[in-house]
Write a structure and sequence with these properties.
Elements (H helix, E strand, L loop, with lengths): L1 H21 L22 E9 L12 H9 E22 L2 E24 L2 E26 L6 E22 L2 E23 L4 E6 L3 E12 L3 E12 L7 E9 L1 H12 L1
Antiparallel strand pairs: 1-2, 1-10, 2-3, 3-4, 4-5, 5-6, 6-7, 6-8, 7-10, 8-9
């Protein structure tokens, strides 16, 4: 078997070598792809905006789905509330045409209160959860660099590739009230990440653009310090690498692009030529 594989590989290499040698060396290999050369956003422009994150979790597609009925049969008497708030302002400066460097700040807050819930796994196996709460808030800052690539030299549509170097700090506590006393876990988390976030930029006016971005790859490092009931402590370090589209990291945002004195000078210089 190994001899057969080796023979096939040798024949493929020999065929490719002979085809290259027999070809015309003057014909340059070309797949017909050309890089856009148009100016989408001029040098000297300042961009700023606010980005909102959208996360969703879906179990089944309808009330008739088997998974929905299975969950409903296990969880009963659910009562509670939860909310998530997030905001991310950004500022970036175009140091050359279509390329910018900037900063980004993120704040996220999550609060959940579960008044009651019952988990039934059988006639003799039931669990009740009452007065459970979760509170979490995180702060992060990122250094970013963006490259805008116009779609077929368009002045309105472009693909955006953004690289982010991020540092973050988060606080969280999960607790349960029993007999008027709070029992729970408090955490301090420190994060660092290097990520690539592509997207699409659509100008609706000369200065206002709508943007959609989604994370596709990144390196993440995280260290957590945990304290339980103000007595027991522990530490945990995790690292990960993601090289896939993360649909839970879709971001929608609006940006404003304002010309500076340098941009106006560059425009006047082009008019004088």
């Amino acid at each position: 078997m190994k001899r057969l594989i080796t023979t096939i590989f040798a024949v493929m290499v020999a065929s490719a070598t002979m085809a290259f040698a027999a070809g015309d060396n003057e014909n340059v290999f070309d797949r017909g792809i050309e890089l856009p050369s148009s100016r989408f956003i001029p040098k000297g422009t300042i961009g700023s905006g606010i980005t909102f994150s959208y996360n969703t979790f879906d179990l089944g597609n309808s009330a008739n789905d088997m998974g929905y009925h299975l969950l409903a049969s296990l969880l009963k008497n659910i009562s509670g509330s939860a909310y998530t708030v997030g905001v991310a302002p950004t500022v970036h400066y175009f140091f050359k045409d279509n390329v910018s460097a900037g900063v980004r700040f993120d704040y996220d807050r999550t609060s959940a209160d579960l008044a009651s819930a019952s988990l039934s796994l059988g006639d003799d196996l039931n669990f009740d959860v009452n007065d459970y709460g979760l509170l979490r808030q995180s702060f992060s800052g990122s250094a970013t660099i963006r490259d805008y690539m116009p779609i077929q030299n368009s002045k309105r549509f472009a693909i955006v590739i953004e690289g982010r170097l991020t540092g973050a700090y988060a606080q969280s506590e999960s607790y349960k009230m029993e007999d008027g006393l709070k029992h729970g876990v408090y955490e301090d988390t420190y994060k660092g990440s290097l990520s690539l976030v592509p997207g699409i930029c659509i100008f609706v006016t000369n200065q206002v653009a709508f943007e959609v971005q989604v994370g596709v790859m990144g390196l993440n490092f995280q260290k957590t310090f945990q304290t339980k009931n103000q007595v027991d402590t522990s530490e945990m370090f995790t690292s990960s690498a993601n090289f896939k589209v993360n649909l839970l990291s879709i971001e929608f945002g609006t940006s404003f692009y304002i010309g500076t004195g340098q941009r106006k000078a560059n425009k006047q210089k082009l008019l004088n030529q």
